[in-house]
Specification:
The structure is a single chain. The protein contains eleven helices and eleven strands. Helix 4 packs across helix 11. The longest helix has 19 residues. Helix content is 32%, strand content 17%. It has two domains: 189 residues, 3-Layer(aba) Sandwich (D-Maltodextrin-Binding Protein, domain 2), CATH 3.40.190; 126 residues, Periplasmic binding protein-like II (D-Maltodextrin-Binding Protein, domain 2, 3-Layer(aba) Sandwich), CATH 3.40.190.10. The chain is an alpha/beta fold and 326 residues long. Strands 8-7-6-9-5-10 form a six-stranded mixed sheet. Strands 2-1-3-11-4 form a five-stranded mixed sheet.
Length: 326
């Protein structure tokens, strides 16, 4: 039987390394054509993974923005997903301010200018939602400066202040000159990462804030989900469940890398691995629908509150039906 080749676009995380070295076993009669595609950053096969998936249909399967996917489903765009979540982040460590500022808590951001990627980027969605529902700080009372175009079109809620400024790599300089008061980004600008411009986390102890958040909600917030085109899912009804096994096996292989204390270039990589296992009770990276339903429902609530979707809907609507019992 002739095997079907499926293009699959992924970021270069440790849990995806098995796809690149061939140790992730594809479903029967499938060959993966694995593309290393970044989103804001360009990798071997380029960038703009989300846009190329949703608008250009360049890939059969792709790692995709959870926020944009929520919007796409409400708008009946022909995408579907499996409950596999390869990227997760807490919002607290992604909030940056100038070291000399007096900003130390979300309430200090009221009335300030805060730069984000796009309004709908998943980290932006999460951070705005956490400000309002976890810290009691209305995100509507902050001016949002956008550095990226929106992937799915929407109309901003009345009274919300946004301005497109582009050029995220200048945010470190904008922070130093006072053009912005803070930025929320999953990747700090290069000048900040290298120390050329100065920035610090909003919270004095962002790790403690994240642990407090985890203890309340019991999960590590989802950033990305694995999506495919609806016609592929219809043509291959078992593909979704089979892909889940492949991704779960790849994740477990990556977990095993850390048995070697020198697998990571970080001298204390194994120590950090053990510390995290003690602090977080349970698996931070569960796939499957049941263990992630509350996490997903929180994002749907945030999306509706921020005007990205018109009507909240049930989390079950997001996934291939035969993956809902996972």
């Amino acid at each position: 039987m002739v095997k079907r080749i499926l293009k699959i676009a992924l970021d270069r995380y440790d849990r995806h390394l098995p796809f690149y070295d061939g140790t992730a076993i594809p479903p029967k009669d499938i060959i993966f054509d694995v593309k290393q595609v970044g989103q804001g950053t360009s990798f071997r096969d380029g960038n703009d993974r989300h846009g190329r998936m949703i608008h250009k249909h360049e890939f059969d399967i792709a790692e995709f923005s959870m926020s944009s996917y929520l919007m796409a489903k409400e708008r009946k765009l022909p995408l579907t997903a499996i409950p596999v979540f390869p990227r997760r982040l807490f919002s607290q460590s992604q909030m940056w301010v100038h070291p000399d500022s007096e900003l130390w808590h979300p309430r200090d951001l009221l009335g300030k200018k805060v730069a984000i990627s796009s309004f709908q980027t998943t980290l932006s969605l999460l951070a705005k939602g956490d400000l309002k529902f976890f810290y009691g700080v209305p995100w509507e009372e902050i001016q949002w400066l956008l550095t990226a175009k929106e992937k799915v079109k929407f109309k901003t809620k009345a009274g919300v202040r946004t301005e497109f400024i582009g050029d995220r790599e200048q945010l470190g300089y904008f922070l130093e000159t006072g053009k912005i008061d803070a930025f929320f980004l999953p990747h700090p600008p290069h000048s900040v990462a290298t120390g050329e411009t100065r920035a610090r986390h909003l919270f004095a102890d962002s790790k403690a804030e994240e642990l407090k958040y985890y203890k309340q909600f019991g999960d590590f917030p989802i950033m990305h989900v694995i999506v495919m085109h609806q016609d592929l899912a219809d043509a291959m009804p078992q593909l979704g469940r089979e892909l889940m096994k492949t991704f779960n096996d790849a994740r477990d292989l990556a977990e095993g890398y850390y048995e070697d204390p020198n697998w990571s270039r970080l001298a204390w990589g194994r120590h950090l691995y053990e510390e995290e296992a003690k602090l977080f009770a349970g698996n931070l990276w569960p796939n499957g629908f049941a263990k992630n339903r509350d996490n997903i429902s929180r994002f749907i609530r945030y999306s509706h509150d921020q005007g990205l979707i018109d009507n909240p809907y049930e989390a079950e609507e997001l996934f291939i039906k035969n993956t809902l019992d996972t």
